[in-house]
């Protein structure tokens, strides 16, 4: 968007203590004065960062509407410190929660891409579980999930492991897989896979307490569209919209895809505004 403000310099937040401490980079756009709409929170996918196309377009929408927007890089990603090989869902969830608490918006809309969709669902659980306590954090007003990959380690990786990959996990603690998005291979560690089992969300009802809009490409070779349908089955209590993009891939970063994303976010903002109005 041509009218979006230039990115401000990233801020850094120390998360964890001792040897587990790492510097997490974040870009925080403040809301325009008097704008009480929810803050937008961007949650990237595996090996993606806060400077990707969808993240920048979301920030542009926030600039256009005068909303706050929070983006962060997980440890081992982008501008953040820490080793990628130490990354787990629990670790990256801890970082996202710490950044949200640090910025302290009153209300948020979570926008998660791929693995970021899993992080978003776990954030919803953590915010609900800790509700009513001092560190409860903001009220969750809605979610937009792009090709969400909840439980991808146990649902999509483990069942398809080849013998040589299982051997590499056992002997080296990780295995590599060629990436179609980068010359560097994807690395999946034993720690990531074992921790993934502890963060499963597709083993029961997920109660986010807010509207959820899922965007899913039907030509996604990384996260099959059946996975999005399975997720919907676990969200029976929420207002859920599932939009299939017939020729869409995993990234959903084409201009038409971006338009769908921004429209979905605007829809969640409108529903949030309507809920805030007195009956």
From TrEMBL:
Any one Gene Ontology molecular-function term assigned to this protein's record: hydrolase activity
Domain of life the protein comes from: Bacteria
InterPro entries given in the database record: AB_hydrolase_1, AB_hydrolase_fold, ABHD10_acyl-thioesterase
Catalytic activity: S-hexadecanoyl-L-cysteinyl-[protein] + H2O = L-cysteinyl-[protein] + hexadecanoate + H(+); mycophenolic acid O-acyl-beta-D-glucuronide + H2O = mycophenolate + D-glucuronate + H(+)
Record-annotated AB hydrolase-1 domain positions: 40-255
Keywords: Hydrolase, Transit peptide
One Pfam family linked to the record: Abhydrolase_6
Keyword Transit peptide tagged: yes
EC number: 3.1.1.93, 3.1.2.22
Protein role: Acts as an acyl-protein thioesterase that hydrolyzes fatty acids from acylated residues in proteins. Regulates the mitochondrial S-depalmitoylation of the nucleophilic active site residue of peroxiredoxin-5/PRDX5, a key antioxidant protein, therefore modulating mitochondrial antioxidant ability. Also catalyzes the deglucuronidation of mycophenolic acid acyl-glucuronide, an active metabolite of the immunosuppressant drug mycophenolate.
Name this protein carries in UniProt: Palmitoyl-protein thioesterase ABHD10, mitochondrial
Organism of origin: Rhizobium aouanii
Source species taxonomy: Bacteria, Pseudomonadati, Pseudomonadota, Alphaproteobacteria, Hyphomicrobiales
């Amino acid at each position: 968007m041509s009218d979006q403000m230039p990115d401000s310099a990233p801020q850094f937040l120390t998360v964890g203590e001792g040897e587990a401490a790492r510097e997490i980079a974040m870009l925080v756009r403040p809301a325009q004065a008097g704008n009480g709409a929810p803050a937008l929170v961007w949650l990237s996918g595996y090996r993606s960062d806060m400077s990707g196309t969808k993240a920048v377009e979301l920030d542009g929408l926030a600039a256009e509407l005068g909303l706050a927007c929070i983006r962060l890089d997980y440890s081992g990603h982008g501008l953040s410190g820490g080793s990628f090989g130490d990354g787990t869902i629990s670790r990256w969830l801890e970082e996202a929660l710490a950044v949200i608490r640090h910025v302290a918006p009153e209300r948020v809309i979570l926008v998660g891409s791929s693995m970021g969709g899993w992080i978003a669902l776990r954030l919803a659980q953590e915010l609900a579980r800790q509700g009513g306590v001092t560190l409860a954090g903001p009220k969750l007003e809605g979610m937009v999930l792009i090709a969400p990959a909840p439980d991808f380690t146990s649902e999509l990786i483990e069942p398809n492991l080849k013998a040589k990959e299982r051997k590499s996990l056992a002997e080296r603690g990780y295995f590599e897989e060629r990436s179609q998005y980068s010359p560097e291979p994807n690395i999946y560690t034993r720690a990531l896979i074992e921790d993934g089992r502890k963060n499963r969300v597709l083993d029961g009802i997920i109660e986010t307490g807010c509207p959820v809009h899922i965007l899913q490409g039907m030509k996604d070779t990384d996260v099959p569209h059946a996975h999005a349908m399975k997720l919907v089955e676990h969200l029976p209590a929420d207002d859920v919209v599932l939009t299939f993009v017939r020729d869409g891939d995993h990234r959903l970063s084409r201009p038409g895809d971006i338009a769908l994303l921004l429209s979905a976010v605007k829809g969640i903002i409108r529903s949030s505004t309507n809920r805030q109005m007195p009956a």
